[in-house]
Write a structure and sequence with these properties.
Number of helices: 11
Helix content: 40-55%
Strand content: 5-15%
Radius of gyration: 39 Å
Structural class: mainly alpha
Number of strands: 4
Shape: elongated
Order of helices and strands: HEHHEHHHHHHHEEH
Distance between the termini: 158 Å
Length: 285
C-alpha cells in the first residue's frame, strides 16, 4: 500500500489593508480625536445667560389724588407726551359704572402700579379701574350703600369728599356722618373741597363770592351731592362712607392740624370758625 504524502492544510488568509483602507482608517482616527477634544471644549463653554427680568418703574397714586394729577403722573411714568393719558381716559373705552358717564374720576384706585416698557396708557388705566371695581365691589361696600339708600357711584362720591376733608380714620367717619345727616335733613353740604374741585384749585381760603358762584360743584348753593366724585378715594374713606359712626353732627371745621371739631350746635360751630380764622391770621403774621 502506497502511502501518499500528507496534504498541507490550507492556511486562512489575513485580510490585507489596501491603501484606500489605510487612508479611510486614518481619517476616522483623526475625526475621533478631534471629537474627543471638541466635547470637553463644549462642556467647558458656559451656556448663554438668561436675561434678567425687566425691573418696572413704580407709579404711586396717593389717596385723594384727582384724575388730572393721575394723568400727569402717568404721562411721566410712561414717558409719553403730556395729555396722552387724559385723551385715552376721555375716549370712553374704560369699563365704568353707567352713572359715571365715561368720567373715570373716583375709579382710578390709589395704589402703587408697576410700569413696564410695553405698558400703555390704556393698559394702566384699565388696571386702575379694574382694581377699583374689585375693592369697591366687595359685599360690605355694596350692602352698606344699599343700607344708606344711595348707589355705589354716590358712595364713591361721598368717599371722595370724605377723603378731601379728613386726615384720620376717626375724622373720616365723622365727616361721613355729617354728610349723611345733612343729606337726610335736606341741607346743602357746604363743603369747600367740592367748590375748589369745580374751580380747579386747592385752597383753604374760600370767599363769600366763591360760595355764590354758579358751579355744579358749588355745594353752598346747590343741594345734594356734587355731580361726580372730586378725587379718587381709598378704602378707609369708602368704609367711612358706608359705615359712619352714630352722631348728630352737622358742622365741622379743622381749627388747626389734628384738631377738627364736630358739633350739631350752629353757635358752637361759629365759635370754632372764629378760632380757625384767628389761627390763620396768626400764622400769616
Amino acid at each position: 500500500m502506497v502511502n501518499e504524502p500528507p496534504q498541507d492544510t490550507p492556511r486562512r488568509r489575513r485580510p490585507r489593508m489596501t491603501r484606500r483602507g489605510w487612508l479611510a482608517l486614518g481619517a476616522g482616527l483623526v475625526a475621533v480625536a478631534a471629537l474627543a477634544v471638541l466635547v470637553p471644549l463644549l462642556l467647558l463653554k458656559q451656556p448663554p445667560a438668561v436675561p434678567p427680568p425687566e425691573k418696572p418703574t413704580m407709579l404711586l397714586v396717593p389717596e385723594g389724588w384727582r384724575a388730572s394729577q393721575v394723568y400727569e403722573a402717568a404721562d411721566k411714568a410712561l414717558k409719553v407726551a403730556p395729555g396722552t393719558t387724559r385723551r385715552t381716559a376721555e375716549a370712553g373705552t374704560l369699563k365704568l359704572p353707567a352713572d359715571a358717564l365715561g368720567n373715570p374720576e373716583g375709579f382710578l384706585f390709589p395704589a402703587t402700579y408697576p410700569v413696564y416698557r410695553k405698558t400703555t396708557p390704556r393698559g394702566l388705566l384699565d388696571y386702575m379701574v379694574r382694581t377699583a371695581h374689585q375693592r369697591f365691589g366687595a359685599d360690605r361696600i355694596t350692602s352698606g350703600a344699599q343700607r344708606n339708600g344711595v348707589s355705589l357711584y354716590q358712595t364713591v362720591t361721598i368717599a371722595s369728599v370724605v377723603q378731601a376733608e379728613a386726615d384720620t380714620p376717626e375724622d373720616m367717619g365723622k365727616v361721613a356722618r355729617v354728610i349723611h345727616n345733612r343729606l337726610a335733613q335736606g341741607m346743602t353740604l357746604q363743603m369747600d373741597s367740592t367748590l375748589n374741585y369745580g374751580l380747579g384749585r386747592s385752597t383753604l381760603d374760600t370767599s363769600h363770592a366763591d360760595t355764590r358762584m354758579d358751579n355744579p360743584y358749588n355745594t353752598y348753593n346747590r343741594q345734594g351731592l356734587p355731580p361726580t366724585p372730586i378725587g379718587n378715594p381709598g378704602e378707609q374713606a369708602m368704609h367711612a362712607a358706608v359705615d359712619p359712626p352714630a352722631g348728630d353732627w352737622l358742622y365741622f371745621v379743622t381749627v388747626r392740624p389734628g384738631d377738627t371739631r364736630f358739633t350739631a350746635d350752629y353757635t358752637e360751630h361759629l365759635r370754632n370758625v372764629e378760632e380757625f380764622n384767628a389761627q390763620r391770621a396768626s400764622a400769616a403774621d
